[in-house]
Design brief:
Blueprint lengths: L10 H13 L4 H6 L4 H4 L1 E4 L2 E4 L7 H14 L1 H10 L25 E2 L2 E2 L1 H20 L12 E5 L6 H9 L9 E5 L4 H8 L7 E6 L6 H18 L5 H4 E5 L2 H7 L6 E3 L16 H28 L6 H15 L4 E6 L7 H13 L17 E3 L11 H6 L6 E6 L10 H17 L3 H6 L7 H4 L7 E6 L4 H22 L7 H18 L10 H14 L8
Helix pairs in contact: 1-4, 6-12, 7-12, 7-14, 12-19, 13-19, 14-19
This protein binds glucose-6-phosphate.
Glucose-6-phosphate (G6Q) binds next to loops.
């Protein structure tokens, strides 16, 4: 990337701008009717995933220009720098090495002269021993009962991945164990997660990279009191709490023996950490073998991303298509619709992965960008979404490119459902692309007055991602697919996909306001007049009855 000009100064960017002018009004109907081999060419396969990207508003020339853009933006160099452990997260001066979390034993990746792969495997081995002990019942609670409930306490990157993965892999999980996830500082979250659990049979995993996050610390303190009160003393903590963190001091201060701490490193970003020790709950659920299979899926996609040419490289294609729709077509959002109830939390997971990574307004030089960066990511499982918001995608005024994700074999064993589910996925992709014309409707005998309302313009782009079955391995490939898609977008947009300074401001302000809410006497408020009034009203109204703070 030319630091002086950024992406908009690249020849490929200019060429894509000119090309956009040529293709923007071409309908997918025309692209398909002129070219019966289009789906063969505009598809790719890797790491157990099949991507049909033919229903996008692109031609062979677009794909060629994507390749040129990737080359001129330096995608291969940045990718290799990431895999080598260089500090590509420049604003935090950190390496970005989630790929090291799935590097095979015996390989080497150096950060500051130190090989991190043996450390990764040392933690994986400790996690495996612990997960096996919980699953077998040999890890006992303080009163001698075996553990039947596992509650992960963590938020953001220390929550979304574990919860998503647990739900995705339930058919592979030990069904005799109950898993819960507490993230929100709203006390209701803790209450609802624990109301039916026996403390004597419950293990808490306090997951926090920093071990300072306000929400997690508050929930962990509540959990500690819940266990200590029920089981009669601090000694119970050792058998009912483990920690996943980079902060050994903080963990010790909380009362958890660092022997029961599973570490990770500052080169693992929170939203890229579900395959680190942050995945301890996943490993307890599916076992060390299942977790290993998931890591193999991640690794297979890493290899694919490193080696496949752009036109056949799934993450690079998804990333470049996102750039195409965001920066050229001006699409503001992108949908992700998994046709799998087990992937219900996958859109939420991807929201953080993509929006925290690429929701950036300055480039690597700190200059305001002149193009749109990461879109708003949203979605729900199909077929549920079809009966609510799909209407807007079909007939609304906005362009919403969507990824539809499906599987050839079901992950639930109820007969007769899966063909129905997949018929809907294929039908949606078809309907979005080709729509229904006024002529079609007239030929069907629809009354003329009704025709304008029933027309579906089509030309709505989709990617269809298919895998054989939602297994641990597939999940690893799927997550790595999106990790590297996000990376590709960030390289082209010339932004730091690995910091999250925007999240910090709210945290700092909340710390100030909590003191003002807790102050016994009316504090002098020095916010803006709106915030002052809201705080004052809350203080007055929170006490029952007379509206006065006690
Ligand atoms: C992720 C973010 C953020 C982080 C949470 C939890 O990339 O940095 O979502 O994961 O704020 O942080 P801790 O793990 O430090 O509690």
């Amino acid at each position: 990337m030319d630091a002086a000009t950024g992406p908009t100064g690249l020849g490929a960017w200019h060429a894509l701008e000119a090309h956009y002018g040529q293709v923007k009004d071409i309908h997918l109907r025309a692209l398909f009717s002129d070219d019966p081999m289009r789906a063969d060419r505009l598809s790719a396969e890797g790491a157990g995933l099949y991507l049909d990207y033919s229903k996008n508003r692109i031609t062979d020339e677009t794909v060629r220009l994507f390749g040129r853009l990737a080359e001129e933006a330096g995608l291969a160099e940045r990718r290799d720098a990431m895999f080598r452990g260089e500090k590509i997260n420049t604003t935090e001066d950190r390496a970005v090495l989630h790929v090291a979390l799935r590097a095979p034993k015996g390989t080497s990746i150096h950060v500051d002269g130190r090989d991190v792969v043996p450390e990764v495997h040392e933690v994986l081995d400790r996690m495996s021993a612990f997960a096996a002990a919980v699953r077998s019942g040999s890890w006992l609670g303080h009163t001698g009962k075996r553990i039947r409930n596992v509650v992960n306490i963590g938020i953001g990157g220390s929550y979304l991945g574990p919860e998503m993965a647990y739900r995705a892999l339930r058919p592979f999980s030990d069904r005799s164990l109950t898993f819960r996830f507490v993230a929100n500082v709203d006390g209701a979250a803790f209450t609802e997660a624990t109301v039916d659990l026996d403390p004597a049979e419950t293990l808490f995993i306090v997951s926090s990279k920093t071990f300072t996050t306000q929400e997690t610390m508050a929930n962990a303190a509540t959990a500690r009191a819940w266990v200590v009160d029920a089981l009669g003393g601090d000694a119970a903590v050792a058998r009912h709490f483990v920690a996943v963190s980079t902060n050994a001091e903080g963990v010790r201060g909380f009362g958890i023996d660092p022997v029961n701490m599973f570490g990770f490193w500052d080169w693992v970003g929170g939203r890229y950490s579900m395959d680190s020790a942050i995945g301890l709950s996943t490993m307890i659920a599916v076992g060390p073998g299942g977790f290993g299979d998931m890591l193999a899926g991640f690794r297979a996609m890493d290899e694919h991303f490193r080696t496949a040419p752009v036109a056949k490289n799934l993450p690079a294609l998804l990333g470049l298509l996102t750039v195409w729709y965001s920066s050229f077509f001006g699409a503001q959002t992108a949908g992700v619709m998994p046709y799998s109830a087990h992937l219900a939390r996958f859109p939420a997971y991807l929201q953080q992965l993509q929006m925290e990574s690429n929701g950036k307004h300055v480039d690597l030089q700190g200059r305001r960008v002149t193009y749109d960066t990461g879109p708003v990511i949203w979605g729900e499982p199909g077929t549920d979404g079809q009966h609510s918001f799909y209407q807007l995608i079909h007939q609304g005024t906005r362009l919403v490119p969507c990824d539809l994700i499906g599987f050839s074999r079901p992950s639930g064993a109820v007969p007769g459902h899966h063909d129905l589910l997949m018929a809907n996925l294929f039908a949606q992709a078809e309907a979005l692309a080709f729509g229904k014309t006024a002529e079609d409707l007239a030929a069907e005998g629809v009354a003329e007055a009704q025709i304008p309302f029933r027309v579906s313009e089509g030309n709505r782009p989709t990617n269809v991602i298919l895998a054989d079955e939602l297994t641990p391995r597939t999940l690893g490939s799927l997550v790595a697919l999106y990790e590297h898609s996000v990376f590709t977008q960030g390289v082209v947009w010339d932004i730091d996909s690995f910091d999250q300074w925007g999240v910090e401001l709210g945290k700092v302000l909340a710390t100030r306001i909590i003191r003002e809410l807790e102050a016994p006497a009316e504090p002098a408020l020095e916010h803006d007049c709106s915030t002052n009034a809201l705080i004052a009203r809350y203080r007055r109204r929170r006490a029952d009855g007379d509206g006065m703070v006690s």
